[in-house]
Every structure is written in C-alpha cells, then in structure tokens.
Design goal:
- The strands form two sheets. This protein has a six-stranded parallel sheet with strand order 2-1-3-4-5-6, with helices on both faces. A six-stranded parallel sheet has the order 9-8-7-10-11-12, with helices on both faces.
- Helix 9 links the parallel strand 8 (201-205) and strand 9 (231-233).
- Helices cover 44% and strands 17% of the residues.
- The chain has 14 helices and twelve strands.
- Helix 4 packs parallel to helix 5 (88-101).
- With 342 residues, the protein is an alpha/beta fold.
Length: 342
C-alpha cells in the first residue's frame, strides 16, 4: 500500500514510523513538516512575528502542494499526519481531493492536546480519524466536538525490542529527556542525594543545546551543580537509548506537567525489559503500578522507592519482566495496523 507520512524530522527519527511501515512491506513517502520557526532564517522568523507572514504562508502552501502531488500523481491511499495539520484555508479542497481518490486521512497527536481550543471541531473534523496518545484527550474531544477522536498510545519501535537477557549494569539510575525547570530542579535534588549515598546516576539529553544563548549553559551549571555532574549532553538515537536503559538498574521517567497519561518512554523502557520508576499518572491505560513498573508522588517517595529497589533486585527484575511481557501489544507495528487499517 502507498502511504504518505507528514511528520517532523525529529519525530520520525525518534518514533521511526517510516521505517516501521517499510518493514511491513508498504511503499512509503515522507514529507517533512518541520515548524517554520525551526527551519528558516532569523530575519524571516522576526518578520513573521511582526505580522509579515508571506514567507510562512509560502512554506505552508509548498507542503500542501507536495501532499496534493502525492495523492494525485503518486496515488497515496493513506496519509498519516503526525502533530501536523494544514491551515484552515487549505483544508476544504484537500478533503475533496482525498475523497475523490479514496485516500484515508489519519491524524496522530503524540503530545498532550490543547483540549480547550474552540477550533478543535474544525481541526480534527478535517481527518477521517484523529488519534490521541492520551485517553482523556480522545474522550473529551470526541464528546465535546463530535469528531472521530480515538485513543492510540505511542508504542515502541523495533530498536527497543532488544535482547532481554540480563546485561552488566553500569549505573544505578538513568534519565533521558529534555530539560525544563521543574524537571531540572528535581534531578538536581536527586543527584545530590545520589552523590551522598554513592549511587551512580546518569542524565542524558539536549541539556546544553541552546546555541543562540550559549551563556545559558554556564548559568545552568551554577544553578544545578549536582545535576551537571551527571549530564551527558546530546541527542541520542533509539538504539543508543535502549542500550542505556538496559545498562541501568532504575530507569526514571518524568512527564511534562500537562500530561495526564503515559508518555512514549513508558512503553520504550518496558520493551527493553528494564525496570521503570515514573511519576504518578491520572491514567495508566492497561498497565498497573507495582506490576509493570512502579510510581512515586513526591520527592521523598522517589528517594524511598529508589533505595528500596536498589536493595531488592529480585523484585525489581520481576516487575521489569512483567512490564516487558505486557507491553508487547503496544509495538509501533501494532499502532500502524490500528490507525491505518492495514
């Protein structure tokens, strides 16, 4: 089947959606839809902020023309929009074209939804099906805006389905993710405790990548001195991330403040057969704390849980094995089957 994927480069490198579809035997075309702000000059971005939007409109129309060509000439039968949608003035004609060509339009939002946006009915009504990675977002938008909003978690790709045999541990605690204030404050406090108790802790992610404000990294190092002793700066490929998880006794997972359900890392960590400790969630879907992973609801509880599981290896490994067994139904391949009806 011919499938068009419209996705940012970053999301495709992390989620490996096009690779997954190709591994299933499909003919895949990808149109990268990186945000205007991230792929244009400083001058163009400044002009756009001041209301001179000609460059942004030209960019968006260029993406639209590529999608039209994919449906008309290449004859795509499915289009997967990942965290992307056309501006309102381009939607109507595209819907008409897709209906004429019998091309199914599917949206997948892999970040928390802006559920209070009054335009949600028009945004998600543009698609034949709109999927959300949180139960709450799907249920709320379906009920309030009467659109075909459904739930599909962001499953793990094959890079995380690695050898499940026991590996040699190189660290007690690992965290992978991007920096934001609350997260950095907690990690700094935890790194201080880790240093005092002799725990080996590693933090991986783009913690020094603000090239426009290079001085910020020095300010952060002063503000978070214990954290930056543990930081390994960079962007890590899924295969590298999977290896880091397997080499760590406890994989720490912290969500964005607005998230209610489980983020993609929840499934990725379980898929590697590693033990996961995450912040308490409103919704765990098909999974249970204490069976598939464990949770904490305060910094004090986090420290207690870490100390407990470092001293109780058999229990830690039993939970990791159970999580790995239960997560098999949420692979990226299964996500593609579900959403694209393939």
């Amino acid at each position: 089947m011919k499938i068009l994927v419209m996705i940012t480069r970053r999301n495709n490198s992390i989620l490996r959606i096009t690779d997954t579809l190709q591994s299933l035997g499909h003919d895949v075309m990808v149109i990268y839809v990186d945000h205007f702000q991230s792929c244009h000059s400083y001058l163009a971005k400044k002009l756009d902020k001041l209301g001179f939007s000609a460059a942004r409109m030209k960019y968006e129309y260029g993406l639209y023309e590529q999608a039209v060509a994919a449906v008309t000439n290449w004859q795509a039968k499915r289009i997967l929009f990942v965290n992307f949608g056309f501006p309102p003035d381009l939607r109507g004609e595209f819907v008409t074209l897709c209906k004429r060509k019998q091309c199914l339009r599917v949206s997948w939002l892999v970040d928390p939804a802006d559920v209070d946006n009054p335009d949600n009915g028009n945004i998600y009504g543009f698609y034949d099906k709109a999927y959300f990675y949180e139960h709450y977002d799907a249920e709320y938008i379906a009920e309030k805006f009467h659109v075909n909003a459904l739930y599909c978690p962001v499953g793990y790709n094959d890079d995380y389905a690695i050898d499940k045999s026991e590996s040699e541990y190189k660290r007690d605690i690992v965290f992978l993710g991007s920096p934001y204030k609350e997260r950095m404050e907690l990690l700094n406090k935890l790194a201080k405790i880790a240093e005092e108790r002799g725990w080996v802790m590693g933090v991986y992610g783009p913690f020094n990548d603000d090239s426009r404000y290079f001085w910020k990294k020095y300010k952060r190092k002063i503000k978070y001195p214990y954290l930056y002793k543990c930081v390994h700066n960079g962007v890590f490929l899924p295969c590298e991330v999977a290896k880091l998880y397997k080499e760590s006794k406890i994989c720490l997972n912290m969500h964005l403040p607005e998230a209610r359900g489980m983020n993609p890392r929840c499934y990725e960590i379980m898929a590697t057969g590693s033990f996961q400790l995450l912040d308490a969630r409103y919704d765990y879907g098909d999974y249970l704390p204490g069976r598939d992973f464990d949770v904490y609801d305060s910094f004090e509880t986090l420290v207690e849980r870490i100390e407990y599981y470092l001293c109780n290896e058999d229990e830690r490994q039993a939970i990791a094995r159970q999580g790995c067994c239960n997560v098999q139904k949420h692979s990226m391949k299964q996500c593609m089957h579900t959403m694209l009806e393939i």
